[in-house]
């Protein structure tokens, strides 16, 4: 294929040009656009999408430069059942992934991608995951026929000429191909949200490729996110000796000026963003945001674990976000935000369940229909999202994009558990902490497929995202721990549960800004200022060591939050054996040893 003047490439790399030409020959777009990341380009994309009905502008006085998008009803979340790891050997994909034989999948993809972009523009998006100059920053190029994807990738990654300049320097890059799978015949009218009932989200870890077909939603289409930054990057990290994890990242500064950096893993829609933007209720504490979803970590030359956030934006769950639960997120969304599948008020602003105490009398729901409180369905989809730049967040830490990253002092694992798990517990060792991460469980949310509320084991909150065998992932964490142990700089590992409920169904812990009290205890543990109580699952706080000043929680509730029932823990440890058995022969023996120790201590 030759490039006309209007689609002049922004690179001279022969391998890039040949690959783009190859994809164009396969998909047959009507034109090619090399994304630059300029403001004029963004305005053009907005005009294109508004004209197509893909997005609509919100009230510019209330929400400047912000837009609402409504997806097709079949395209609202990750499609884990259609997500594949195409490793050369099935055993390397592991039982945690759907595996497809690479050559067979390439043949299938060749069929569905043939002329899939007919009548559409093919966009070429060079992008970086991570700041320029970081030892773990990696490059990619996503080809897509969705302007919505282009606009969103511009928020979530360092996209355009800035990325192509890095790629032109000769670095390796991940190939990512996406199509909504809705070719247009000449003169055929488009639909606002083109997609296809057939969907594939496929990953080739050995060749560092991603092919996504049929969906235009979220991580299915924004291939820098879960597909690259977790599934492909986790395989890269295993091969290269670092970690790519589903975590948020904060800087915590205590009243006496001590600065600690904490990374925490929670399943999607379990409070990562709220924690990343926490506004402390304890005087003198400051929490600054470094990232809300993905963390890449490596062992530096001093033997310390360092971390960066490879993204540049937030792709957060809107329902439940409010001035009470996350005022920082609400302030971040003042403008320049893309909202997807939320409701719209009569004055053309956004609304979702949990946003305000009072429910509006009338809305246009996420399907575009009239809605009132009497309607049977929610006004916004439970997995409705906001996409906004991290630079707009008032709690964003200075130097959040420093290529050297930050040294990690503590790691936290957490899930949504109504029972069983306490408010906070410290692991006995790195090995025990890996066991807590490997066996963590959470109630399923609307971010993925499955029954909402169902308790499921979600190792490291990475069950849908580990790009290789889950047992090998645990072994990789243990290997990182051995390297850290040699220098004596291994972070301490904790587990939290903000969602414990009483017998009457109410939450026992107020959460939100009050979670700083847990951070306070963790930081004091790191400096040796406070003791703890041994339990079968680790070290629990003494009740007197949790700062409860100004907070009303009954003695009975606090006791339940900070103690564990040995019989219940024994049952949970027996249940946890299922995930160790699930990983089969690749489960490290140390995970079985930790399970046996938990059973011994709880009996």
UniProtKB/TrEMBL annotation:
A GO molecular-function annotation: phosphoenolpyruvate carboxykinase (GTP) activity
Record keyword Mitochondrion present: no
The protein's required cofactors: Mn(2+)
Domain Phosphoenolpyruvate carboxykinase C-terminal P-loop: 242-597
Biological pathway: Carbohydrate biosynthesis; gluconeogenesis
Pfam families: PEPCK_GTP, PEPCK_N
Keywords of the record: Decarboxylase, Gluconeogenesis, GTP-binding, Lyase, Manganese, Metal-binding, Nucleotide-binding
GO cellular component: cytosol
Enzyme class: lyase
EC number(s) recorded for this UniProt protein: 4.1.1.32
Gene3D superfamilies recorded: 3.90.228.20, Phosphoenolpyruvate Carboxykinase, domain 1, Phosphoenolpyruvate Carboxykinase, domain 2
All residue ranges annotated as the Phosphoenolpyruvate carboxykinase GTP-utilising N-terminal domain in the record: 18-238
Keyword Acyltransferase assigned: no
GO biological process, one term: response to starvation
Subunit comment: Monomer.
Family, similarity comment: Belongs to the phosphoenolpyruvate carboxykinase [GTP] family.
Identification of the protein by name: phosphoenolpyruvate carboxykinase (GTP)
């Amino acid at each position: 294929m030759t490039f006309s003047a209007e689609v002049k490439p922004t690179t001279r790399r022969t391998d890039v040009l040949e690959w783009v030409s190859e994809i164009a020959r396969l998909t047959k777009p009507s034109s090619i656009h090399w994304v630059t990341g300029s403001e004029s380009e963004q305005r053009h994309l907005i005009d294109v999408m508004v004209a197509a009905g893909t997005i609509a502008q919100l009230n510019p006085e209330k929400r400047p430069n912000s837009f609402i998008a409504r997806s097709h009803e079949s395209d609202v979340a990750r499609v884990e059942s259609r997500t594949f790891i195409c490793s050369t050997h099935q055993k390397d994909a592991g039982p945690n992934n759907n595996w497809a034989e690479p050559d067979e999948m390439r043949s299938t993809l060749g069929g569905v991608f043939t002329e899939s972009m007919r009548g559409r523009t093919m966009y070429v998006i060079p992008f970086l995951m991570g700041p320029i100059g970081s030892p773990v920053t990696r490059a990619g190029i996503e080809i897509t026929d969705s302007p919505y994807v282009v606009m969103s990738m511009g928020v979530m990654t360092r996209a355009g000429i800035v990325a192509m300049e890095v790629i032109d320097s000769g670095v390796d890059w991940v190939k990512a191909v996406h199509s909504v799978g809705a070719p247009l015949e000449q003169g055929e009218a488009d639909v606002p949200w083109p997609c296809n009932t057939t969907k594939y989200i496929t990953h080739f870890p050995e060749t560092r490729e991603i092919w996504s077909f049929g969906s235009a939603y979220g991580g299915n289409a924004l291939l820098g996110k879960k597909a690259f930054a977790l599934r492909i990057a986790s395989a890269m990290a295993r091969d290269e000796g670092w970690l790519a994890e589903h975590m948020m990242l904060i800087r915590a500064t205590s009243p006496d000026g001590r600065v600690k950096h904490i990374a925490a893993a929670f399943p999607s829609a379990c409070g990562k963003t709220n924690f990343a933007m926490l506004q402390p209720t304890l005087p003198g504490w400051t929490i600054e945001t470094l990232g809300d979803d993905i963390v890449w970590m490596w062992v530096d030359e001093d033997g310390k674990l360092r971390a960066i956030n490879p993204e540049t934006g937030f792709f957060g769950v809107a329902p439940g976000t409010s001035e009470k639960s996350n005022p920082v997120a609400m302030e971040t969304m003042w403008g320049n935000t893309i909202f997807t599948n939320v409701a719209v008020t009569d004055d053309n602003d956004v609304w979702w369940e949990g946003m305000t105490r009072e429910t509006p009398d009338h809305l246009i729901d996420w399907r575009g229909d009239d809605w009132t409180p009497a309607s049977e369905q929610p006004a916004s989809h439970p997995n409705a999202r906001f996409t906004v730049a991290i630079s707009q967040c008032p709690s964003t830490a200075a130097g959040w994009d420093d290529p050297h990253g930050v040294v990690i002092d503590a790691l936290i694992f957490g899930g949504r558990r109504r029972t069983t798990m306490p408010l906070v517990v410290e692991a006995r060792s790195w090995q025990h902490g890996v066991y807590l991460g490997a066996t963590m469980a959470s109630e399923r949310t609307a971010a993925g497929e499955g029954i909402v509320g169902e308790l499921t084991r979600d190792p490291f909150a990475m069950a849908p995202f580990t790009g290789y065998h889950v047992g090998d992932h645990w072994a990789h964490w243990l290997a990182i721990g051995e390297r850290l142990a040699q220098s004596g700089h291994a972070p301490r590992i904790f587990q939290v549960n903000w969602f414990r409920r009483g017998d009457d169904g109410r939450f026992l812990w107020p959460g939100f800004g009050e979670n700083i009290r847990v951070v306070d205890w963790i930081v004091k543990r790191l400096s040796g200022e406070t003791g703890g109580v041994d339990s079968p699952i680790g070290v629990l706080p003494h009740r007197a060591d949790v700062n409860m000043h100004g907070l009303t929680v009954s003695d009975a509730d606090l006791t339940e939050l900070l103690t564990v029932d040995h019989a219940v823990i024994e049952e949970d440890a027996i249940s946890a054996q299922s995930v160790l058995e699930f990983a089969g022969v690749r489960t490290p023996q140390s995970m079985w040893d930790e399970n046996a120790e938990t059973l011994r201590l709880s009996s």
